[in-house]
Amino acid sequence: MRFGLNYHRYQVPEWAPFYVPYPLLKKLLKTAIRAADPATNQPDFKEVYTCLEHNINSFGIFHHENYDILRQRVEELHNQLAPKSKTLSKTKDINCYELENILKAVIELRKDSEKLQWYYRVNKEAVQRIYAKLEKLCRSTGHTDEGHKVKWTDLEADRDVSWLKYTGSLNELMTAIIQIRSDMKIQSGNKSCLDNTSSHLSASSDPIRALDRAVIDDDVPKLSKMLEETYSCNTTTSQCFQEIVYDLAGSSVVYGSKRAAAFLLSEAFSRYHITLDHRILNQMIIISGRQQAFEEYTASRMCSQCSCKDSCGKSESNLFSLAVEQLALGGKDVLLEKDAFGRHPLHYGAIYGLPGICELLLDLSQKSGQEYPARLIMSLDFQRFTPLHYAVINNHALVIKAFLKALEPMMQTNDESSKYILIDILRDLLAIAIKYQYDDIVRLFAKFPREFHDESSHGETALYVAARSGKEEYVDMLLKHGSFPDLDIPETVHGWTPLFIACVEGHHAVAKLLLDAAAKQDIHDYSGWTAKEHAAVRGHLTLAGMLTSLGTEDSLGGPASTLIQPIRRNTQSFRTDCHYLIINLGVLQSGKQVKAVELRERSPKELISMNAGFLMEISISERGSIRELVELPSLTDMTHEPFVFPVTDPDRAWLSFKFLQASSTLAKEYNLLGGGTALIGSPGDHFGENRESLIRERTVPILEKDTLDVLGKVTFTFVISKPISYRAIPLARPLVVEEGVQLVGHRGLGQNTASHSYLQIGENTIESFLLASKQGATIVEFGNTTSHESDLVPVIYHDFSLSESGTDIPIHDLNLDQFMHASNIQSPRGDPVSVLGKANAQPISTQVTSTKPRSRSLTKDHERGTREIRDRMKYTVDFVSKGFKPNTRGDFIQDSFTTLEELLEELPESISFNIEIKYPRLHEAIEAGVAPVAIEINTFIDKALERLFSYGNKKRTIILSSFTPEICILLAIKQQTYPVMFITNAGKPPVTDREMRAASIQSAVRFAKRWNLSGLVFASEALVMCPRLVRYVQRSGLICGSYGSQNNIPENAKTQAAAGIDIIMADRVGLIAMSLKGYQKQAKSQA
Known about the structure:
This protein is an alpha/beta fold.
């Protein structure tokens, strides 16, 4: 759902109503599947297709309208640059002031073109995703209907052809401007470009060209004299002469000849009875606005005389005042006149944020009638936008203030129709301002009465949009000024209220504001979910804890009624004799502000060229390698979409990234821009044999193909799966989930804690496993890690480091003898005490019946030994943080450490195993303050698997599990003998592990489905808070289990059992076994 959840973020805010409604289409798909006849299992997608076709048509119309406007603007600029020629190879005489104005217009046009291109890209992604889902569902039901896609395919093809033609024309225009500027610089030398241009004009005796020269030179006396002479000679008709003077006035504005412009507008127009119209007004506003917008860009690009002209004379505002004065009584008609784009002067004043000019226009219009200012402000152009829209879109708060003041009579009018039109527009504009996060504008609109804050045309209230943005101050403003009687108006697709979306997005502060304002918590969305469940499933457990549990939900509704989704089987089959390179673009640790693909800022020269899109090609150097294409920027959450490349020899292979740009002349053709390469061979040489870094991220620079300049960089995370050398891998043993909950003894009889309220046997010991089984555990869980590379023996130990020696030593830095010695030295006689007998002195089979030795807890030797052990460990990481170390003498009934082989051989086969593969994680190394280095991951796994394949009893159920995603991936690739389960805290605070794939229940489900894992084990907090999430996991085709201290509370265990959980892992095995037994007995009696 990441694309759907982020869909609003990809949208151009002011165009939001014109996007294909992807969330609605997904909802219609699910509705059709739910409504399918169980007998035929044939969903009726008629409503989906109808909605999709209608919105594709609407999208096509909107795109074409905006494309036509862009095309007209390109043609207009072509005409300005070469008015009498069809080719730009022959351009008119032009000065750099005029050329810079054209260049600014082209840059504006380029930005607007990229905006439309992005609009197309997002809609295209949405449509393709919906069609992909439909095709997948139709294939699964044996029904196909390709005819529905033809219209979309045709639209795509037509758009691609027209867009290529358009970008070619735009690039031609840009190239011509650059060439003219370059030629102008060469020709003029130290002269002004105006001198150069004037010399061309002087070659002609044409009086009109002479007049033009006077305007360019900004020579008012000469211009006045020549006009009078031309007028007196009667060489032209009166109408023709008026047109010449009008054109000269327009040219004076374009050339930046402000003295000439002031003369023509204030004197010449009245002297020769010329009427001013909207064209010059628009031109003056546009040039003035562009000068402000491109102030820094312009300064270094003009010759000294043009630069002087640019700053001399009256300001544009004063010049505009002169023009406005000429409008006199007929001004209202001119102000309402529209240009080729449906805009009048006020539109342009709002676009460029010129409050002085906007106020002049409004004051003048008011003289023509009280209703005229509002009429101007509310006038729509061909893009369906008013001047007020443009002021908001471009973040011009001062202009908006002027407009709102002028609109006050309309807000207070008795004409309900006009008033509600304004209210609807202001609602939409408030939503746009919130999406853009324009603080000043949001403050202006937030002060309006509550009726302005209801649903916008997009079906969302301003409060909902503000809550989704996460901006606490926006929500606070709306709540204070809006006087909301109803905080819980839902949006129209999912039925989410502002509180719901705050929970979905994990905005704690916003949710608290809404709760303090009495937002309702007992509401269910259209799928039956509560806000609390949405927060919990996404890993926002602190936020979920702020909300109350209703306790009245239908146990089979909401999350528990999620559509059944069997695990997706990978289409790629993994060979046991092949290496595989698994790559994720970007980083997989949250909190790192690193983009997967980061391109450097483009130079001004590069900004001139309009591109048609970028692609990145990823491939391996080996012959026949598959090639993956990624459209940039990627709109897909790549966390659970890794690329998998088969590799024959990883030590000699390299990973290649090529950056491609869509051709501006040929559809579906791409030009190489640059590339980068990363060697993927084992970096073990840097850390020693069989060692590797826990940091799996790599960053590769992308070099430009010709200059080798850095274009950008690509960051990726990878792991290599190597084939296991074991010759006879046993056949698969599918995990059979028995009816009722399975109780797992956590680390045997329980994890060691600081509590002294009950007897604690040393965790992960043989005695602990035997007692757990005796007290009712059907499965025992233990952590498996691997000792030093000198022997690489899988040992049973939970923590990252060993502290018994007095220092924190990672387990992989110890050999087996050193590891076992750290346990043995804790016994005063070198032989640890056992409640079941001497573990090291006799076989396990006889320990249960052996006589318990006399307790030595009071002997002086024992007391002295205990003090020595605690003193030795008191500065180690675990002891400082917890005040103890598990399975140490003095705190627990200590037993000796053991190995995986010993457990497989000596524990009865009736005891099932849940083996947690304890591979170090990055945050553990950081917390322990040691280097993030561990045994090479394939070696680590292979050693454990070899022991399992050699000593694993066919009658014993064995489950493999891990907190480390890479361990789960490699286990799934290397073998299918044993089921694999992923363990995650699922957002349980405090969050120390920043692994994205383990961040939430939702993320873990996606990860498990991607790699065909058997199930998931979560920290129990989320499932206790929201028990219906158990069936959400199960209906995704996965076994659901839980672990954690909450499972030691009988009521919590019963709650999860009632929800249908498969596995409960507990420390208080006897207590929870009795509780579950009582619950199951009661449930049977009530059935």
